[in-house]
Amino acid sequence: MFTTRPATAADVPLLPAVERSAAEAFKRIPDLAWVADDDGQSEQRHLELIQGGVSWVAVNDASDAPLGFLNGQLMGGNLHIWEMSVGKDHQGKGIGRGLMNHARRWATSQDLLAITLTTFRDVPWNDKFYASMGFTMLSSSELTPALKRVLGDAVRDGFPGEKRCAMRLLLR
Length: 172
Prior knowledge:
alpha+beta, single chain, Aminopeptidase, 31% helix, globular
């Protein structure tokens, strides 16, 4: 069993390990295996997003230990998700879906237009998962300047542009 709650500064030292554990799944995809060795978000970045009020953790009900997290930021009237990760031993148990549903409820309560994110296309636990949650892939003509910047920054940081996409979930 797990509970979703706002992330706190006390969670920060534990979140990079959750992200690294989640990234282990990329080792099954030869041309993306390097993602498993990527540094991910720094503790400072986690803290910034927590202080921004748009960061949640799914925690073990017994120990309050983070099993997964979702963090984001308000961007152009939308909730933009920067990262969602679930530790490899807890994947496939509804934790990611629970985090996404929590983010959706929060974004709706804030009267936001949409939730956006960027992800890998053609990776089963990425674009197909988000599509099952109601997200649609955006064409290049539908990208906002902010999403173009996010995708461009990812390419600059070494992510293959042809494998990246932006997705949106309209809330109203």
